[in-house]
Amino acid sequence: MKNRLSILFNRLTDVPTDFPDNARRQKILNILIVSIFFLTALAIILILALQNLVSLGLQGNEFYLAFVVLIGLAIVYFINRSKHLPSWLASFLFLVFLSAAFAYTDTPEQLANGRSLFVFTIPVIMSSMLLVPAASFLFAGLVTVELIIISNVSSVVPNGFAIGGFFLVAVVTWLSARSLEQAIKDLRVVNAELDQRVVERTSELATALSRETVEAGRREAILNSIADGVIVFDRTGTAILSNPSITNLVNKSQTEIIGKGLSDLLDSEDVKASDRVSLAALLEKSAQNLSNLRVKWGRKTLSVNAAEVRDGASQAIGTVAVFRDFTREAELEQMKNTFIAIVSHELRTPLNAILGYAEMLKEAVYGQINEKQKSVSGRIMTNTQRLLGIVSDLLDQAQIEAGKLKIQMIPCKPAELLDNIHGVMEKTASDKNLSLILKLDPAMDTTIIGDPQRLQQIMVNLTNNAVKFTDSGSVQVKVAPVGTKNWQIQTIDTGNGIPQDALEYIFETFRQVDGMSTRQHGGVGLGLSIVKQLVELMNGKITVESEIGKGSTFTVTLPLITHNGSPTVPSTKQE
Amino acid sequence: MSELALIIEDDEDLAEIFGEALKAADYTIEIIRDGLAAQERISQVVPTVITLDMHIPHVSGKALFNQIRADERLNKTRVVVATADAQIGEAMRGLADLVLIKPITFTQLRDLTFRLHQRK
User: Fold this and answer.
1) Inter-chain touch A345–B84, beta carbons under 8 Å
2) Residue of chain B whose Cα is closest to the Cα of A423
3) Which of B20, B29, B55 is the best residue to mutate to test the A interface, defined by the most A CB atoms within 10 Å of its own CB?
4) What crossing angle do the helices spanning A160-225 and A20-53 adopt, rounded to 10°?
5) What are the structural domain ranges in chain A?
6) What is the pTM assigned to this prediction?
7) Among A131, A489, A563, B112, who pairs with A556 as Cys (CB 3.0-4.6 Å)?
8) What ipTM does the predicted assembly reach?
9) Is A564 on the interface with B (CB under 8 A)?
């Protein structure tokens, strides 16, 4: 009921304008009009009711005046509600009407200079509210004119103090109305800014939200489409995210993973106890960046990587683990290793037999043979040895690539290494009429720590290479200390030399200086590549200097270690 | 009767070549191609030289080596380890009288074992 009344009142006082100041003024006017209208109507009804009961002796014109007021109010009301008439018109008419009406509220004497003098301040005050603030002066003027007229009618001298008072009131109301309007205007600006900000923030939020949604969707699409299994653990080690691929790898459904801890994930018959330990270590200490951990998971071999997830402020907020199906690679690797092992044994054994039988023929173990037969036996031996060398090189290369070649650290004697070079290379060199000069620096330690087999291989390969590419002159092999921390092996030949542009790739796998020379000089182009890789495995380095027509010098510099387990220096820097 | 050389080697061809090399070095040779047979034979004869392959069927080369070294009767027997594995070779160096890394040539074995004659 109350609600309906207020709705009705609101509807009655509504104004058809969009200008906030006008709306406020017109609304006040409407409220005044509606209130006065109803009060006047109520008064008329009461007066009529009382008049029937008691004779009051009311003057007729006062009664009609009330009706005039009602009609006047109605007219002003409709003007105020009109969309086409200027907004100030209704207020202006109302105030004029009000000012005029006051002339009938008391006797002219009282109005001009008595108890009702104050009523003329009412339109002055109201005008600054209903029209513009400065309108108070207009109505001060109007009521002054009215006062003068009334004074003349009742033959009274107009009250000068009262007129001054009207203007004083006009000033005060003008000032207060003006500051009030300013305050309202400021408030409106603040409100508008606030509204604008709310709109902007809302739109930003909406954009961010939609971007986030798109981003999340994209991320999910990526996560779902990759073949690797992914699990994201939060800081407490609980799985919070995973992708479909993981389910095939660990034989668990996503629901068996999400929300569970690492121990639940690993609690599977598929995982060996030792793998469980290393997986837990990997995932719990992901900061250590252990990577490519291989574990058996059921029938599969998985390669697991883990990395910390950090937020914008670099705070660790969890771990992401990526599981890759390594089964096929592991099988291939196993096959390769088996193949190498088989080849290593099965290829060499018959070659050794061929070598041995050829030698026995040549040595006349099975009876005397003629010179031609002897020469052929020799050539079978040479070629077999070459083949054995190639097989060894290929196997070494395969082992280096597989990371299976380990460097031993045991005592060995440089003098013995040089002696062996003599044994292995002297005949080849003298066959080509080259002098093989071996030099051991007296300052060199008699025993050093290293891998004698691999050091020998480095020396043999370098010397063999030098002999191969030298047609006349000599091949020198020198072993000497370099400062106190390193030692070096040098081969110096007087051969063809190596073109400058070729120097950079002679250590590459399967390369010789030009395509033709592979045929010409034999070998598959692995010798120097293996030497370089062996030297690097020993923390050393190899350099080459060469001049066309004068020869080449290969220098291998290695850390000098003279006591087992205590390297004099790990550095390979040359002094 | 010349001195005895025992050739413990499972590969037929290498056994033949080693045999000829040792014959050429003036030994009476006996070839054994199985670990168990080698264990039995070592306990029966006193060879001057034993060439020992480290990879033979049934018994490891190292076990055979230890058996030889533990046998008082064989304290003068020279053991020549013949292996294709350089790492095993390095491990046996200092333990065996001679370590040869395969490929081992006929002349190499002949000349080296000739020096091992006791009567010399």
Assistant:
1) yes
2) B108
3) B20
4) 120
5) 11-193, 226-325, 331-402, 410-559
6) 0.51
7) A489
8) 0.86
9) no
